[in-house]
Write a structure and sequence with these properties.
Blueprint lengths: L1 H9 L10 E2 L10 E3 L2 E2 L2 E2 L7 E5 L22 E7 L3 E2 L5 E2 L3 E2 L5 E2 L2 E3 L7 H16 L5 E5 L10 E3 L3 H13 L2 E3 L2 E3 L10 H21 L84 H9 L16 H6 L12 H9 L14 H20 L41 E3 L3
Parallel strand pairs: 2-6, 11-16
Antiparallel strand pairs: 1-12, 3-4, 5-6, 7-8, 9-10, 12-13, 14-15
Helix pairs in contact: 3-4, 4-8
C-alpha cells in the first residue's frame, strides 16, 4: 500500500499544453494564452486548495531545435495553466489522478476489464447502447480542432464534438507527423514507431474510459477487450456485436454502428487538421472488410506468445527497425517469422481492412478500442512476467517517446515512464489471460 501511494504521488499533473482542448480555454485572441478554468467557483479549484493558476512549468521535455512549428510542442497554446495539488488532476483540478476516485480523490480505483464475450446478453446490450449514446451526446467540456492550415493560428477553429468523437480526435491529432522546418515528416509521430507506443496505448484506453464515465455519469464504466488469439476469423464482426459488412464493406443495417459517421475522415492533407463537413449526415460511414483479402491472415496465439517471450522490452535504434524486442513485436514491425512484412497489431488492422487499415481514422471503428484494450492486456501480461517498473523504461532519445516526455495529446502530463507499472497502480486490472 505504501509503494502504491508513493507511485500515485509521483504521477505528474502539471498542464503545460492542451492537446485535448478545454472548451473554457478556446478560442483566444493570441497564443500562447491562459487556461485556468473555474472549478466550484474558483480558478483551478484554488478555494478548495485543489490547485493554482501559475505559469506552466517546463515539465514537458523541450523538443529538438528543428521542431519549432509543431503546435503540439510545450507552451504553444497555453503558458499559464492549472497546477494541481496532491491527488487532483484535470484542466481545472476537478478530476483525480489515475488510480484514484471519489469526491476528494482519496479512494483507490479497482475496476476489472473483461473479455468482451464474457458479457451476458443484458450487459452486451447495455454496452452497445452506452457507446451509441456517447457517440451522439456533445461533450460540454471539450472541443476539437479544425484547421485549413496548421501553420497559421488564424485558421484554427474549435468545434463541438461528442464524447466519443473527442476521443477519436485525440487519437487522430496524435497520429499527425511532426512538423520539421515547416514540413511534415512521417519518420516520427507521437504515438507509433517508438518506445512510447506502449505508453500511448495504455493512456488512450484510460482516456476512453474517462470520456465514457463523464458521458454516462457512471464512475464504474470499464472497457472490454477482444482476445482474438484462438479465433479463425473476426468473431466480433457480427451484428450482435460490432457489425457484419455488406459486399461494399459498409456495416449492415442490423448493426447499431451502421449509421455512425466518422470524425476527421473526410480529408487528410499534410497541412490540415480534421477537415470535415459541418453536417454530420455528410461525413463518411465506417467501412470494414475483415478477412476479405485472401493474402492477409490474422495473427494468432503463437504470435502473442512470441512477443511475450522477448525479454528485452525495446532495443536500439528504438524505432521501427528495432529487433528482438517486445515493443516492436507488439506494434507489428517484427514477428516470429522474421522482420519482413507486418505482424500482430499492424497485421490485425490490415486483416480488418477498410477504416481499421488507415491509421489516422482507424479509431472511428469501435473495433479499434477493443484492440487497444487487448494490446494493453498483453502489455500487462508482459509487465507481470518480467517485473517491469518505471525504472525499466528504455533510454530512447526520440522526442515524444523519451521516459520523461508527456504522452501526447492529453492535457495532463502523464509521463511515458509512469505507464510502465502494473495496471493495478493505475486503478484497473484484467480477468484471466
Amino acid at each position: 500500500m505504501f509503494l502504491l501511494s508513493v507511485f500515485l504521488l509521483s504521477l505528474s499533473t502539471t498542464s503545460t499544453t492542451a492537446m485535448v482542448f478545454p472548451r473554457a480555454c478556446v478560442p483566444q485572441a493570441h497564443y500562447p494564452g491562459t487556461c485556468c478554468p473555474s472549478y466550484m467557483g474558483s480558478p483551478c479549484g484554488s478555494a478548495l486548495n485543489r490547485g493554482s493558476c501559475v505559469p506552466s512549468k517546463s515539465s514537458r521535455a523541450e523538443p529538438p531545435p528543428d521542431i519549432t512549428m509543431d503546435d503540439r510542442i510545450p507552451g504553444f497554446y497555453f503558458n499559464v495553466s492549472c497546477t494541481c495539488r496532491g491527488n487532483f488532476a484535470g484542466p481545472d483540478c476537478g478530476e483525480c489522478k489515475p488510480g484514484l476516485e471519489g469526491d476528494n480523490c482519496d479512494r483507490r480505483s479497482n475496476h476489472t476489464r473483461r473479455e468482451v464475450r464474457r458479457m451476458n446478453e443484458t450487459e452486451r446490450t447495455l454496452f452497445l447502447v452506452q457507446l451509441q449514446f456517447c457517440k451522439e451526446l456533445i461533450d460540454p467540456n471539450y472541443v476539437i480542432l479544425r484547421s485549413g492550415n496548421r501553420f497559421r493560428t488564424g485558421s484554427l477553429e474549435f468545434i463541438d464534438a461528442s464524447y466519443y468523437d473527442v476521443w477519436i480526435f485525440a487519437m487522430y491529432y496524435m497520429s499527425k507527423p511532426f512538423v520539421n522546418n515547416t514540413r511534415e515528416t512521417n519518420a516520427v509521430t507521437f504515438g507509433a514507431g517508438g518506445t512510447g507506443f506502449l505508453s500511448t496505448i495504455r493512456a488512450s484506453v484510460m482516456h476512453f474510459e474517462r470520456q465514457m464515465r463523464r458521458c454516462l455519469k457512471d464512475p464504474s464504466f470499464t472497457m472490454y477487450f477482444y482476445d482474438w488469439r484462438d479465433d479463425n476469423d473476426c468473431a466480433m464482426c457480427r451484428n450482435d456485436f460490432f457489425g457484419a459488412s455488406n459486399d461494399e464493406g459498409f456495416l449492415t443495417s442490423g448493426c447499431v454502428f451502421s449509421t455512425w459517421r466518422m470524425c476527421c475522415a473526410d480529408f487528410d492533407f499534410d497541412e490540415t487538421y480534421c477537415l470535415m463537413s459541418d453536417c454530420i449526415c455528410e461525413r463518411p460511414l465506417i467501412n470494414r472488410k475483415a478477412g476479405e483479402d485472401p493474402s492477409i491472415d490474422k495473427p494468432y496465439r503463437a504470435d502473442v506468445d512470441y512477443c511475450l517471450s522477448l525479454r528485452t522490452i525495446d532495443a536500439p535504434p528504438y524505432n521501427t527497425l528495432s529487433t528482438n524486442c517486445f515493443r516492436n513485436c507488439l506494434e507489428g514491425n517484427i514477428g516470429r517469422t522474421g522482420t519482413d512484412g507486418i505482424y500482430l497489431n499492424l497485421l490485425w488492422h490490415q486483416y480488418c481492412g477498410g477504416t481499421m487499415s488507415i491509421p489516422s481514422i482507424a479509431p472511428n471503428d469501435p473495433l479499434f478500442i477493443l484492440q487497444a484494450t487487448f494490446l494493453d492486456r498483453i502489455f500487462q501480461a508482459y509487465i507481470e512476467r518480467w517485473g517491469i517498473t518505471p525504472a525499466s523504461y528504455p533510454p530512447t532519445t526520440m522526442y515524444g517517446h523519451r521516459a520523461y516526455d508527456c504522452i501526447t495529446p492529453y492535457y495532463e502530463c502523464w509521463l511515458n515512464r509512469d505507464m510502465f507499472t502494473s495496471s493495478i497502480n493505475l486503478g484497473y486490472g484484467y480477468d484471466n489471460f
